[in-house]
Specification:
With 404 residues, the chain is an alpha/beta fold. The chain has twelve helices and 16 strands.
């Protein structure tokens, strides 16, 4: 009998469910294994498999997966542990379904649970202040830890094998639509620790990477990090905010192997940005795109349709913005007021009503909104999303992807 089985839950929405592998699970597995426990990762992204017997079963769960996690938990004989974004933000929703409900970063809490030091119930984990103490992810415990669709991205075909990693945990900003369980303080890994992980992945013949940090460019040793990566002959993608981008940073990124940078444009309507506390303007986005292109870095722009404050004017402004900036790559998601976000806590304050309480529908790429904006119908909102997506894919034409 295993000490611990960590489950990667089915993903029934994404067209390429194996594009990303949840880093949380591989971190937890590495932590438990290094402590001497017998651990297995069970990957259910492409279908349900037979569960081995174990003393403990662990789930890392986002909101749309919580219903299936509850169903599975009730079939298990071992003790169950739930962590991740949803239990961190809505622990009471998990109380009657799991033995241990972990809020926050679970690496050390998991060891206390396995050793019997932690009683069942809701557990508030302390923020980790030294990420360098966490072992590298247990890539070897996963059949397909790396992906040939990760680096090109959704809809852009296949490429070289790529891996995900992080340089930090947390985000100092407070956008109203975000339910990030890790905000402040932002905790950074050392340059030595990050470079060490990259070198371990290079030994596994991986030279393409995607940094999952919310704001990659805020690392306090950003210049040293870029200098360190420059000598590795790697290729990477990252994300940051438009108002943080400078020519100096963009040139450093290109020098160190950055081929693509994602910007959370969200909307080309300044009114929508203001309502949602984005603390950026459309002009910030235009300037950042120009800076990145001048540094020969592809720009991927992320739009969210259905945000509080959106109107038909927003659709027209989004189209005009795309025409003016000539997007390299784009993604258009559908807004869900995730637990923990300011909009979820006070929907009326943001002029919306949540009308669908079934969490299994709460995806960023759902086929219907779970909320309505005051004075609008769900059909009107959905028509705007469909029109913008169709226009980008057909009328606007395929993005002109630059070579890195």
């Amino acid at each position: 009998m295993r000490d611990l089985v960590l489950l990667v839950l089915p993903d029934w929405v994404n067209s390429q469910p194996t594009m990303y592998f949840p880093l949380a699970v591989t971190y937890l597995a590495a932590m438990a294994r290094d402590a001497g426990y017998d651990v297995e990762i069970l990957d259910w992204r492409q279908g349900v498999k037979v569960l081995p017997e174990a003393k403990f079963y662990g789930f890392s769960c986002v909101t749309p997966q919580i219903n299936v996690a509850k169903e599975i938990a009730h079939t298990l004989k071992g003790l169950t542990i739930i962590g991740g974004a949803h239990p961190s933000l809505l622990p009471q929703d998990c109380r009657n379904n799991f033995d241990y409900i972990v809020r926050g970063e679970g690496e050390y809490v998991l060891l206390d649970i396995l050793s019997g030091k932690q009683a069942p119930g809701i557990i508030m984990a302390n923020r980790l202040r030294d990420l360098n103490m966490i072992p590298y992810p247990a890539w070897d415990m996963v059949a397909r830890p790396f992906s040939d669709t990760l680096f090109p991205g959704e809809r852009y075909g296949k490429g070289e094998l790529a891996a995900t990693l992080i340089a930090s945990r947390g985000c100092p900003y407070n956008c109203s639509f975000c339910g990030n369980p890790h905000t402040i303080p932002v905790v950074f890994r050392s340059v030595k620790n990050i470079i060490g992980e990259l070198m371990e992945l290079i030994k596994r013949n991986v030279r393409y990477f995607r940094f999952e940090d919310d704001c990659f460019t805020i690392h306090p040793q950003f210049e040293q990090l870029c200098e360190g990566m420059a000598g590795l002959n790697i290729h990477y993608k990252c994300h940051t905010r438009s108002d943080l981008m400078t020519s100096e940073k963009a040139n450093l990124m290109h020098y160190s192997g950055c081929e693509e940078c994602g910007l959370g444009v969200e909307s080309a309507d300044d009114d929508v940005l203001a309502v949602n506390n984005k603390r950026e303007t459309v002009e910030d986005h235009r300037r950042a795109i120009a800076i990145l292109k001048a540094a020969r870095i592809r720009v991927k722009t992320y739009f969210i349709m259905g945000l509080p404050g959106e109107t038909d004017k927003t659709l027209a402004l989004n189209k005009a913005f795309a025409e003016q900036t000539r997007l390299d790559k784009w993604t258009v998601s559908t807004f869900s007021p995730y637990p923990g976000s300011p909009v979820f806590r006070s929907p009326g304050k943001f002029g919306i009503e949540i009308i669908d309480k079934d969490f299994s529908h709460w995806w960023n790429f759902s086929n219907a909104y779970n909320h309505v904006i005051y004075g609008q119908t769900r059909e009107q909102m959905w028509a705007r999303y469909v029109e913008f997506y169709r226009w980008l894919k057909e009328d606007y034409g395929k993005p002109q992807v630059q070579e890195g």
